[in-house]
Design a protein that fits this description.
Hypothetical Protein Ychn, Chain: A, five-stranded parallel sheet, 152 residues
Amino acid sequence: MLYYHTMNTRKSYFSVILFLFFSAISLFAQEPNVKSQNNPKGLSNKTKIGIVLYSNDPETVWNAFRLANFSLNNGDSVSVFLLGKGVGAQDIKSKDFDVKDQMNTFSENGGKIMACGTCLRQRKTDGSKLCPVSSLSDLYEMIKTNDKILNF
């Protein structure tokens, strides 16, 4: 009787272990479910990135646009909002950091740059084709609609 009970217990443990093992394998073997209402075929979603640029430091601005360009090249959607000192980004001159080139590349590849109208007026400057005048409403919309917001 004791032998029978021990054998049944071993079989039970073995069955539980097998069940857990195959359950774990089936979980890891499944493809990720990326289907959603907006993406019914389950295709990979690209990230929508918003960058708020509040600096006029050449290296900081240059790196922000380098990241923006890298993201665009990976198929993501990127928009940049220039705020405060950042509205002077297109006027930065630096022998080490070609900010203007990074900004032009970004714009040519479909990136969107917006410049705070109030910040431009405080600096007695205007927007440009590269950096059109935008508003707090545009910044709010960018924050609201993007997946990620980065600050530089």
